[in-house]
Amino acid sequence: MKSRPNIILILADDMGYSDLGCFGSEIDTPNIDSLANNGLRFSQMYNSARCCPSRAALLTGLNPQQTGVGHMVTDMGLPAYQGYLNKNCATIAEVLKKNGYTTLMSGKWHVGGSYNLLDKDTWHPGDNR
Questions:
Q1: 95-113: pLDDT as tens digits
Q2: How confident is the model at residue 14 (pLDDT cuts 50, 70, 90)?
Q3: How far is CA 127 from CA 69, 85, 87, in A?
Q4: In the chain, what is the greatest distance between 2 CA atoms, to the nearest angstrom?
Q5: Of 43, 45, 46, 70, whose CA–CA distance to 56 is shortest?
Q6: What is the overall mean pLDDT for the chain?
Q7: CA–CA separation, 23 vs 107, rounded Å?
Q8: 52 to each of 58, 83, 115, how far by Cα in Å?
Q9: At a CB cut-off of 8 Å and minimum separation 6, what does 114 contact?
Q10: What's residue 120's pLDDT?
Q11: What is the pLDDT averaged over residues 58-79?
């Protein structure tokens, strides 16, 4: 069986294109530079300038409004602005998992879900996507 590549996808808020050493920064970022030099780097990208819609687009490959996260995670009463990922889109993790990958998400989610952050018993992955 052909081996599958390992995939590490990093989204960093409030970071500019040239803030990493691998893209010419004067700031020393050796570990990220090593990942970049031994992997795939994207050099042409667009975002919606807000963290939630940008994250929704990156996770699904769709425009933010197609995912239901056209603004932030507040329901604005319209399908494109419902504040959480709708059932018509799949995340990259869901697609990879169906194809035999083990997946992990760590960090900010900010693409939906209604739960009390202080009560871990309310954390149900997949609820309200």
A1: 999 999 999 888 888 887 6
A2: confident
A3: 15, 10, 11
A4: 48
A5: 70
A6: 85
A7: 24
A8: 10, 9, 17
A9: 84, 127, 128
A10: 72
A11: 91
Residue found by looking up tokens 């056209």 in the block: 70
Place of tokens 């995340």: 91
The DSSP letter of residue 6 is P
Q: List, by residue number, the catalytic residues.
A: 51, 110
SS3 of 61-113 = CCCHHHHCCCCCCCCCCCHHHCCCCCCCCCCHHHHHHHCCCCCCCCCCCCCCC
57, amino acid identity: A
Number of continuous H segments (helices) and E segments (strands) in the chain: 4, 0
Residues 106, 50, 17, 44: is their CA dihedral positive or negative?
positive
Contacts of 116 (CB under 8 A, 6+ apart): 122
Cα distance between residue 62 and residue 75, in whole Å: 19
| Lookup: tokens for 31 | 């570990």
Distance CA 47, CA 54 (A): 5
The residue behind tokens 């009390």 is 116
